[in-house]
Design goal:
Elements (H helix, E strand, L loop, with lengths): L1 H11 L18 E7 L2 E6 L9 E11 L5 E10 L2 E9 L7 H13 L6 E7 L4 H5 L5 E3 L5 E3 L14 H14 L5 E4 L7 E3 L1 E5 L4 H7 L6 E4 L7 H7 L4 E6 L7 H17 L17 E3 L1 E6 L4 E5 L6 E2 L4 E6 L5 E6 L4 E7 L3 E2 L4 E7 L13
Parallel strand pairs: 2-3, 5-6, 5-9, 9-13, 11-12, 12-14
Antiparallel strand pairs: 1-2, 3-4, 4-6, 7-8, 10-20, 11-13, 15-22, 16-18, 16-21, 17-20, 18-19, 20-22
Bound molecules: zinc ion.
Length: 376
């Protein structure tokens, strides 16, 4: 109800909630606002086709407006090849606490030499900028009090959405990301308090996506459509093959794991003909477990959690994976897996209340669900 009232006021007062120079539909060319921040030109629309070839271009892109009247800006690096070719978009920071995803994209971009490239790679490292400022998962929305918005449930966004995260998603998707993507990769990690393995999330039944997923030397593939509203699905829904790498724990840089995803992403750029040279290690060089479902094991009690298995361990149906103790040290719960598979995620915070996911087991369902949602 409050949302309706708010929307009414916006219409009534003729207040634009878009940047001044925003136009409906896809932009025809790169739009420079005339502003410069820290030496970087500010743009409000990007078309990589009109940038000078054979060099890197660094911009701030003007995102959604803030309550104070200024804007959130995101950092954009474009490696524009000397010769034309495919265009790949790399994103990170849709969740603000997932630092290994940011470093993976930065490392790939730093390895690229546009003078030797055929095609263009565009990187946006800090999509949910206000979430990154406090290194937290969700966007702190001020519109209706202290809401925290999971931006990876908002794509492709809504131009007139009631939350800033929704409007920011619309601006970025329509004026920055989609117009410059023939393929896209949205990098993530586990979340604060919950670690995951190195894995890729994407749909193996889409040939263009499968061929990219198999180019990563990482041990697990989660072959699942995942939530509606995640960024990679917004790309897929408009015909752009996309997927989501998950790079271990939140909040930290796991340099060893990052290197695997850098190698896989360079393979993807070679696969699309943007970068020349021999393939690095791929899924063929490691043991890859492919599962189409994740079995959640939820805490039923409060208390300290003690894991009995480790990430990437194989588990059998009926195997005990964790126990929980109360403050007297008594065991108050024992947790077993109902399925056979591999451990793909584990709670890393030692204390848990009832309802929290403790363990996710990657496995194959006899009849996988088309649309699954998982407890968070
Ligand atoms: Zn994430």
């Amino acid at each position: 109800m409050r949302a309706i009232v708010r929307a009414y006021h916006l219409v009534k007062e003729g207040t634009s909630i878009m940047p001044d120079n925003a136009a409906p539909g896809a932009p025809q060319g790169t739009v420079y606002t005339g502003d410069v921040i820290h030496g970087k030109k500010v743009i409000s629309a990007l078309n990589v086709n009109d940038l000078a070839p054979g060099q890197k271009h660094l911009f701030y892109f003007q995102g959604v407006g803030m309550p104070t009247g200024q804007h959130w800006y995101v950092s954009v690096v474009v490696a524009k090849g000397a010769r034309p070719g495919k265009r790949v978009v790399l994103t990170s920071g849709v969740h603000g606490d997932e630092m290994s995803s940011v470093h993976t994209v930065q490392t790939v971009m730093n390895q690229l030499n546009p003078a030797e490239m055929s095609g263009t790679v565009t990187a946006v490292t800090d999509v949910a900028r206000p979430a990154m400022e406090s290194m937290q998962r969700r966007w702190p929305n001020s519109g209706r009090g202290p809401d925290l918005i999971d931006m990876n449930r908002e794509w492709p966004g809504n131009e007139n959405g009631v939350t800033a995260a929704s409007r920011h998603a619309w601006i970025l998707f329509n004026r920055l990301l989609r117009p410059n993507a023939d393929a896209a990769i949205d990098f993530h990690t586990g979340t604060t308090g919950f670690n995951v393995t190195a894995f890729n999330l994407g749909e193996m039944n889409v040939p263009e996506i499968k061929s990219m997923l198999e180019l990563y030397p990482v041990g697990q593939i989660f072959d699942n459509h995942a939530y509606p509203g995640v960024l990679h699905n917004a790309f897929v829904d408009v015909g752009i093959p996309a997927f989501t790498p998950e790079i271990g724990a939140a909040r930290v840089l796991n340099l060893q794991m990052i290197q695997l995803f850098v190698e896989g992403t360079m393979n993807v750029l070679k696969h699309h003909g943007i970068v020349a040279g021999p393939m690095g290690r791929t899924g063929k060089d490691v043991r890859v477990f492919v599962g189409d479902s994740a079995f959640p094991i939820l805490a039923t009690q409060g208390g300290l959690v003690e894991h009995l298995v480790r990430l990437n361990d194989k588990v059998e149906a009926g195997q005990k994976v964790a126990i929980q103790r109360n403050n007297f040290g008594e065991v108050v719960a024992e947790y077993t897996s109902s399925v056979a598979g591999e451990v793909t995620g584990q709670r890393s915070d030692a204390m848990s209340e009832p309802g929290n996911p403790l363990t996710f087991i990657l496995f194959n369902k006899a009849t996988p669900d088309v649309r699954e949602t998982y407890p968070e």
